[in-house]
Amino acid sequence: MTDTATIGTTTPDPAEPAAGRRGRPPRLPLPGELTTEGERPRWVFWVALAVAAILIFGVAPALLSEFRLNLLAKFFCFGIVASGIGLAWGRGGMLTLGQGVYFGVGAYAMAMYLKLADARDRGGPDALPDFMQIAGMRSLPGYWEPFASPVFTLVVILLLPPLLAFGFGYLVFNRKVKGAYFAILSQALAAAAAIFLVSRPELGGSNGLNRFTGFFGFALSDPANRQMLYFITGGALIGVVLLVRQFMQSRFGELLVAVRDQEERVRFLGYDPALVKSLAYAVAAFAAGIAGALFVPIVGIISPSAIGIAPSIAFLIGVAIGGRATLLGPVLGAIGVAWAQTTFSEAYPSQWTYLQGVLFIVVVGFLPGGLASLFVIRRRRRSTGSGPATPATTGSTGSNTEETP
């Protein structure tokens, strides 16, 4: 049984008035605090963040070719999705198998705007996107018209995914659906979204939307503009990581861990677990929507195959391998798995799928906390001088601490 299983029975702080303690979850270590178990101090995170910023904005553009830099920007999109999943799954215990839906909402919103902008730059204000002309469509569907506005498009990208996730999440969590049942529901949502998109010719059908030429007035064929997209994506990744960290180390983060481990006891204290879980789920959808919107101009296509069940599971594989309960583990895991997939599939195209499966089985079977738990085990062994810690206690159900690899 983990430490968090004793929620509600911990020794109260004598300096805190009894009235202030009533109805609150117990005080858990905040992320980055130096505790008796050897967690790292706060400054380590900021040093790691500074090093990451130097690598992203300085080293990578100087060393990588245009193609590899664009590929890295694509991996950053996966890292943004993984950061949100780390909050919902790692801290909240919600196995989110449908993040492709919210990724697709942001992606299709951006794609619709870009297709309209390209058509009007090419043929005037009444021109239709090229695929609609090929399909013989005579007029623009009504719900496309608002996406001619960049402001409306950005609002949809930022607000629609979290609102949809919050509404869906609260309906599900309020009925006390959790665990494998929630995972199945979220996966079914991704399958339904992909099937719906295939049946809509005005959204490109199974081919999706592609062949974008501009991005808010900038030509995507210009290498300088492609590099600008890379910098935007790198900045978005750092921003989402900081947002997730803020949630993790706040009172909300403590409450989220308490709901994960002792939901009924938290409800007894007067909190609404459904509301807490829905908010975390909405934050994960917010990150996925941003990633999807950036993915479109970087890759140049979005289709139903990119938002269905398989991509949603692929997001989780990187998170699980990196370490879902840590802050940077999901990001590094998602980027690492995407890089390995690209590298090894180029050399061994028919064997990569088997290698990915073996890696996932090994990590889940022997390191439930992900690869990041290796650093946690080493640090705790060094700080306590005791026997080796078991991987199962260093990531999946541990206390609300920030383990920065």
UniProtKB/TrEMBL annotation:
Give coiled-coil spans as residue ranges. none
The answer, when asked if Cell membrane is one of the entry's keywords, is yes
**Which residue ranges have biased composition labelled Low complexity?**
1-20, 384-405
- The UniProt transmembrane annotation reads 43-64, 71-89, 95-114, 147-173, 179-198, 228-248, 279-302, 314-340, 352-377
Enumerate the subcellular locations listed in this protein's record, separating them with semicolons: Cell membrane
Name the major location.
membrane
What segment(s) does the record annotate as region Disordered? 1-35, 383-405
Q: Which UniProt keywords apply?
A: Cell membrane, Membrane, Transmembrane, Transmembrane helix
| Top-level taxonomic group | Bacteria
Q: What membrane topology is annotated for this entry?
A: Multi-pass membrane protein
- Pfam short name (any one): BPD_transp_2
NCBIfam families in the cross-refs: urea_trans_UrtC (TIGR03408)
* Designated name of the protein: Urea ABC transporter permease subunit UrtC
Source organism: Dietzia cercidiphylli
Q: What taxonomic lineage is listed for the species of origin?
A: Bacteria, Bacillati, Actinomycetota, Actinomycetes, Mycobacteriales
Q: Which gene encodes it?
A: urtC
